Amino acid sequence: MNINFIKAFNDNYIWTIEKDGKVLVVDPGDAGPVIDYLKNKKLDYIILTHKHMDHVGGVDELKIKYGAKVYGPIETSEYNDVTLKDGDEFEIFGEAFKVISTGGHTEDHISYLADGNLFCGDALFLAGCGRVFTKDYKKAYEGLNKLKDLDDDTVVYPAHEYSLANLEFAKSVISSDDLDREYERVKKLRDEDEITLPTTIGKEKKINPFFLAKDLDEFIDFRNKKDNF
To answer: How far apart are alpha carbons 161 and 165 in whole angstroms?
Structure first.
């Protein structure tokens, strides 16, 4: 399958998965950029990670225009054709998609694993993780640990271009040569207005303070520091 991105708003990425002339988009917060990207193509599927409007705001328009089938967690049930929970599996384009519960950012946030590719919405970013709006830090920590247990070569597609700010924070709480090298790589790309993603689980194990937190208390400490950074 071929994976591309569509820029939306200031820093969102709407990921596309394309195979054999069929198209899926992940978290279309804005319909306009998706329609512009598709041109004469048809949109077949939409998968949603959570309910925030910068991830679901374009769904209704895209469903009306293309008749796309929507998969999502219980918190997006008003849009869903298929509602999913942790451990569910389904098939699109002949590819198996596995659902992983990654709550904390929102109550029922989910991520999708397909052929070694992880679409994780706002659960995991390069060198960061999503704000824990639910205040359920235990759920957020457990969700990240599920992702941390994936194969190191799993390719990670977060929904936002937060990499540089995340790395600046990471350098304030941890230090390593890997982190310094990644900061220089990302800084150069952002200076050229280029995308810094995707990342990998293996890379995040080396540079992401929320993966490196030794326990829940340290995770909470890092999250609170990041929120005030």
So the answer is: 9
Q: Are 28 and 50 in contact (CB under 8 A)?
A: no
Average pLDDT, the chain: 98
Mean pLDDT, range 102-107, rounded to an integer: 98
12: Cα separation from own chain's centroid: 10
Tell me the residue ranges of DSSP E strands in 20-176.
22-26, 45-47, 69-73, 82-84, 89-92, 95-101, 110-114, 117-119, 124-125, 128-129, 155-157
167 in Cβ contact with 207 (< 8 Å): yes
187 exposed, middle or buried (CB, 10 Å; 0-12, 13-18, 19+)?
middle
Sign of CA dihedral 219, 225, 227, 229: negative
What are 137's two structure tokens? 């830090």
pLDDT at position 81, please? 98
6: CB partners within 8 A, 6+ apart: 13, 14, 15, 16, 25, 33, 34, 37
* Residue 17 in tokens: 């998965």
- Cβ atoms within 10 A of the Cβ of 20, count? 8
Residues 91 and 77 sit within 8 Å (Cβ to Cβ): no
